[in-house]
Amino acid sequence: MTHDAERWLVETFQLARVAPGTRRRFELIIDHLPDGQRLSFPAVVARGAHPGKTLLASGAVHGDEYEGTVAIQNVFNELDPAAMRGTFIGIPVTNAPAFAAAQREGHWDQLNLARIFPGSASGSPTMRIAHAFREHLLPQADLLLDLHSGGNAYAIRYLAGYQLREGEVGRIQREAAIAVGADLVWGTGGQPGRTLSAAGELGIPAIYVEMRGEGRCRPDDLARASEGLRNVLAYLGIVEGTFPTERPRYFVEMPAAGSGHLQVDHPSPTSGIFVPRVDLWESVKAGQPLGQVRHPDGTVLAEVASARDGRVLFLRTLPRVFAGDTLAFVLPVPGDDTEGR
Asked: How much of the chain is in helix, strand and coil states, percent to nearest 5?
């Protein structure tokens, strides 16, 4: 099969240049690499025949997260521009160097794209990706939906989330996150360097979704990601459809700065083999064992206990760990009846 993407410099990409009532694929060129290959975004655009809002959906900000990539592809393929009011812009693979290497960080500079926004037009490849996304794609959106997962080394409970903001932006974010349809919605204090913080600086509402991960793209996770994307399109009025409007069973807002930073909770005290003693979303009490870190000969090097009451939102599932690697994130859930897993 032929690949029919149109090549544009990313700085020339403007929706006004895309005819209403069409679906098109683009390669948006950011820069060139030392061997002449292009550093670029693959982009899919469905521009409705009628005016309306614009949803920007990004996948694979981390290169080992796949559900968002495939969900963007699938939803784009099913959209009918003639019936749409507004526009869908999908960036299935935001961090191409990390994606090609199947790793979380950039292949050449080992930078985490979700920590370095606004990036730099004269920096390393990952810095240039961040800059191009913020400067040339984000400003064209009415809402950003950033699709994530646990990646190669972790499992995370399905959720929709946002950085807490005041006023109209905050209202839209809360409503859009609920519209996704996850039974867990999590609002957290602001954290710099993220896609969401970059959007916030521009006054653009932004939400994210987390799928289970573990370096997979399971059919049920893909179905949830795709349905959430459809629901947000319906929320914005871009397509016809219903979506949730009531707060879900688990609704948590934590305004403290950095409260959503998963990778700093329960660090491994030493290197070794992590053997968990809990399951994802299991209710735990402070002091309850989360697992052991063992030497290869079986010696228990460390017992790791929960620092608080809550539920296991994020769990290390790749057994090999280095000292400092996060082993689990325990989420306090106010009013949790502790029933269900």
From this structure: 25, 30, 45
Which of 25, 20, 19 lies closest to 6 in space, CA to CA? Answer: 25
- Which class is 262-331 in CATH? mainly beta
Structure tokens at 274: 């992590």
Per-residue pLDDT of the chain (341 residues; tens, 9 = 90+): 667 899 999 999 999 999 999 999 999 999 999 999 999 999 999 999 999 999 999 999 999 999 999 999 999 999 999 999 999 999 999 999 999 999 999 999 999 999 999 999 999 999 999 999 999 999 999 999 999 999 999 999 999 999 999 999 999 999 999 999 999 999 999 899 999 999 999 999 999 999 999 999 999 999 999 999 999 999 999 999 999 999 999 999 999 988 888 989 999 999 999 999 999 999 999 999 999 999 999 999 999 999 999 999 999 999 999 999 999 999 999 988 654 44
- Residues recorded for the chain: 341
Domain ranges of the chain: 6-254, 262-331
Architecture (CATH level 2) of domain 6-254:
3-Layer(aba) Sandwich (3.40)
